[in-house]
Amino acid sequence: MTIQAGILGATGYAGVELARLLLRHPAAKLAAVGSVSFEGQKLYDVYPSLRGLCELECEDAGAVIAESDVVFAALPHGLSQDTAAECVKAGKKFIDLGADFRLDDPAEYEKWYGCEYKYPALHEQAVYGLPELFREEIRGKSVVGNPGCYPTSAALGLAPALRAGLVEPQGIVIDSKSGVTGSGRKTTQGTHFPECNEAFSAYKVAAHRHTPEIEQTLSKTAGEKATVTFVPHLLPVNRGILSTIYARFKPGATLGAARAVYEETYRNEQFVRVLPQGAGVDIRSVKCSNYCDIQLYADEHTGLLIVTSVIDNMVKGAAGQAVQNMNLLFGLPEETGIDMIPMAF
Amino acid sequence: MTIQAGILGATGYAGVELARLLLRHPAAKLAAVGSVSFEGQKLYDVYPSLRGLCELECEDAGAVIAESDVVFAALPHGLSQDTAAECVKAGKKFIDLGADFRLDDPAEYEKWYGCEYKYPALHEQAVYGLPELFREEIRGKSVVGNPGCYPTSAALGLAPALRAGLVEPQGIVIDSKSGVTGSGRKTTQGTHFPECNEAFSAYKVAAHRHTPEIEQTLSKTAGEKATVTFVPHLLPVNRGILSTIYARFKPGATLGAARAVYEETYRNEQFVRVLPQGAGVDIRSVKCSNYCDIQLYADEHTGLLIVTSVIDNMVKGAAGQAVQNMNLLFGLPEETGIDMIPMAF
Amino acid sequence: MTIQAGILGATGYAGVELARLLLRHPAAKLAAVGSVSFEGQKLYDVYPSLRGLCELECEDAGAVIAESDVVFAALPHGLSQDTAAECVKAGKKFIDLGADFRLDDPAEYEKWYGCEYKYPALHEQAVYGLPELFREEIRGKSVVGNPGCYPTSAALGLAPALRAGLVEPQGIVIDSKSGVTGSGRKTTQGTHFPECNEAFSAYKVAAHRHTPEIEQTLSKTAGEKATVTFVPHLLPVNRGILSTIYARFKPGATLGAARAVYEETYRNEQFVRVLPQGAGVDIRSVKCSNYCDIQLYADEHTGLLIVTSVIDNMVKGAAGQAVQNMNLLFGLPEETGIDMIPMAF
Amino acid sequence: MTIQAGILGATGYAGVELARLLLRHPAAKLAAVGSVSFEGQKLYDVYPSLRGLCELECEDAGAVIAESDVVFAALPHGLSQDTAAECVKAGKKFIDLGADFRLDDPAEYEKWYGCEYKYPALHEQAVYGLPELFREEIRGKSVVGNPGCYPTSAALGLAPALRAGLVEPQGIVIDSKSGVTGSGRKTTQGTHFPECNEAFSAYKVAAHRHTPEIEQTLSKTAGEKATVTFVPHLLPVNRGILSTIYARFKPGATLGAARAVYEETYRNEQFVRVLPQGAGVDIRSVKCSNYCDIQLYADEHTGLLIVTSVIDNMVKGAAGQAVQNMNLLFGLPEETGIDMIPMAF
Questions:
Q1: Hey, is the C-beta of B197 within 8 angstroms of any chain D C-beta?
Q2: Is the dihedral of CA A243, A246, A250, A252 positive or negative?
Q3: Which chains neighbour A (Cβ–Cβ under 8 Å, 3 or more pairs)?
Q4: What rounded mean pLDDT belongs to chain B?
Q5: Is ipTM beyond 0.95?
Q6: Is the pLDDT reported for residue D70 higher than 90?
């Protein structure tokens, strides 16, 4: 059986990356693509890289849903809820690359996104789609909130230490740096080449919407409320996120213990590589792949565990992880269609 | 049957790109990798991107040949000849990514490379592996000279016009711009980041070793001696070549005629896209793929046909084309294992 | 006496670069800045680099003119003519960084820019402000058409050979590559970081508006009609233009003769450096300076003179040359305020 | 009187940046340049940007010292001590851009650099040359330890809060990102363009030699021992450092109080700009200038003060600050020769 997959918001960066992956997925077919802005145009008119590789024309949401077994939505927040409801009603799977199904607490969602949860029952059926941490909960679900890019790098980077009780869940500092595709396809002054190239800045300092999502996941793994100071930065590269995470060791905890826990946690994970001591992570080494590379350090004189964690923000941080979730929902081996080898350069 | 493939010079950029492709090739297995500088080390020690994906250790050439049905060599010029002879003797296929089997004329080779052809008989059996132009000659051969990166972009860009007699074969100007991976892995002052980033320069102006190779192919397709002024430039990007080609229209020839010829020539080619009028080529649209995109223009007030041609120098300009040749040698569909969709960004 | 200088279009890239130079000019004072889009805002609100360095607020054109002895205009084409007329009437100098005063022939202007010359008498008084070629004609004028960036690199690169009759004025090919600041401050999809970074493309192939300007200057220096095929490319760097120029040697002309002519022509020029044989030009070596570096090559087997010429498109290609013209108009040493040493990196 | 200035290690990046500044310094003359590797060559042979601007030839250290009133040394650590002693003996000023005169405690120097202080008396006369914090101590000294690039951004960013007792001096996290010129001119695999471009990594995590220097300055300003976790990252740009600094507010301290203290501290500083609320710092806005831009944030839910601080690592982080120190030593206005306006792009 071939899974018929549709993408809403296909002309955004996450959307076209999904298209790229699904066009080569051995068990799925890219059945339909949707776009509000480019309806009626070929996807390759927007992305010439796809010329000759995909003849699909952008359709409206209804048409995409009708042609699909699973619908991926890469839409502005707030717009996925109705679509999700419609998909569920029609017996389709729905994977949301936006923020509408990531937060458990409606109050947090309203606080950070300014919208309400319209279908509480729907949210109860939804699952947070970070397979390495919540694999068993994902299987069999119909609605998946695909994690944000920063939260993916942060959660994979810190969850094992928190779960094992090696670090304090309070006062965690996460200093993240993301490539510019994370800002999306829409042009802005700050992403205009001459103002972004040879530039570097922090943005939404301690005020980014991914903060509650990160705290939610870290709290779940810690078993108690975790608090995080999160500062994202805009990195003048196309792809990649590196998160540098600072957490306080609990008394008695050591780097050696942490290393053992991480290696054990991720031993059988296809997409997480805990590097041996002496190696360093680089966004270059996971580029265009679904990998997350992790390295651990201790600052003994200040008592901190330092974790560096890298992903490709467009793959493990968006489209790749979405396909990983699709594979889980449909009972396929998790790496199907997303076992790309990272570019070395 | 699975093809056992070996790579000599696997730790160079073309070598590791080959490894990346062969590790995902459905009909081949990366059986062995060779390196003089890193013998005894894992390939992933040199390229951490491969960690967990390839456990091969760099071996000496003899071991690599012994374990392989086909040997790819990405070696400095002059070093491939003995290896090729050895492979042929042992009944193996040999695909050379260096320059030792590209030029028909030993005098030209000696003039530009300062070495002699040691085994004239071997060269008579060798073929220039540009499948779109010489497909039938490649099948069944044992030794392939994989084309240079610049010559690939130039030949695909101009061959149809020359073959159809639309442009003069003399006085062609080819102004090419290549990403820095084309300079290889070895560090130099000119490729040191602060001196290469935000920089741009021409090099080996009208003196680059790819000139005779370009002239050879263009002469073959023109049916008479072609002369080319070739100027390469170093572009501050990792991957990609764009060649801007200027040729004089023969009397009566038109852009419309040229367009018709190109479309006809490449109609059934998997890896060449002649863009419709109004679209422009960009190295971005072929990145990490085996595609060559081509666009045509006329400057009517000066009587020139202008062709822009782009490839990924590491794929169609090196490793991808080498695999394409392997597929031809082994009777596989030509796109096997190299049907990657270009990155949109 | 201090020259009171005003800038119209001060919030564009050429405008703010002018501001940067004028703020440090020992004989001029930046008296007023104009902007339609940002009227009433401080210049540093648009360019935070200027915070603490310039308290000027953007005003309307009338106010700027009133406060200035010389007005620089960096406006869209067609808008400078009325302003120039107003300035001349008020006895002020006018230096236009746009295209309204570059072309002698009104028909060419209308053909390429779609506007008419409104004040023919004004154009007769205007001069094309390329000091190295037309220094004596500039002195004493009131209206200067500051050359385009590409034409500056092309004209300085080829004029000596044409003037000396060493190359044919027909069939010249100019393949230019420009940094992205050349496209201006306005955001576009093509200059959005993820689509411009790691990308490279030609644009307006044989159809760029700088073509008639280049031909005009080259024809003047050749003493006969010159024809040029001009192809610009967008280079993923902030600043810099490199032009690679191909011209056919006249019978008997040699590289040695050309070198002698260039060295003689530019011997006393402050801002043009003819490099010795063996050295290559690089946009890096003129960055943030008013220099033009030139190197010459011959392709003996095809009979071409090849010239490579680099400038900083924002300095010698725009703001720096404009100040050079101001210095000429006001009888100052030509290098006053623009003797910046190029960044090495 | 013109100061005769000499540079040892002039062919390194800090050295040539010093040359660039000194060649335009109104009260100093670049009298001599020294280089071990390039002795006998012109400086412009190594940096073609300087062609026509500086005819100096690289000499040995003795010759440079003899011709200079002040000697700048940009040498590998350990090599400056003898030179400093020689300069002092000869009555010359010595400004060390290396690490030999930065640390007060010989044990710390030995621990981090593996060398001993050879002339304890000399170190007692030396001063740490961060003018904004230690201006009065610098005047009249003969030996200056010019601060490291990271410590400059960190100290300017956090000193006011520590001095005012607003934050805890323990457990400070400094997450810094530096452009590649910070790694120097010597080629390495990690700074080879294809491996550095589109890449990002942390290095020397919690183990960088600038850590004790940062702690020393912060301890002095705090009046008690400060402890810092310092993690540097390599940013794929040429110039610039951004430090993101996390410190715990003391009870009762607020962002408003911190802002007031910073504004007061730096009110009369030429080279430090505390941005108003709502603006963000960017390395782009200080590029090629001696400025340090600072912004403050509070994360109220975790009780942290977050400071972002940017400098140009080659100017305020090296050559510019060295000239600032020279100006102090010679009684010149501090901004003499280093009042460059930042590039906007």
A1: yes
A2: positive
A3: B, C, D
A4: 97
A5: yes
A6: yes
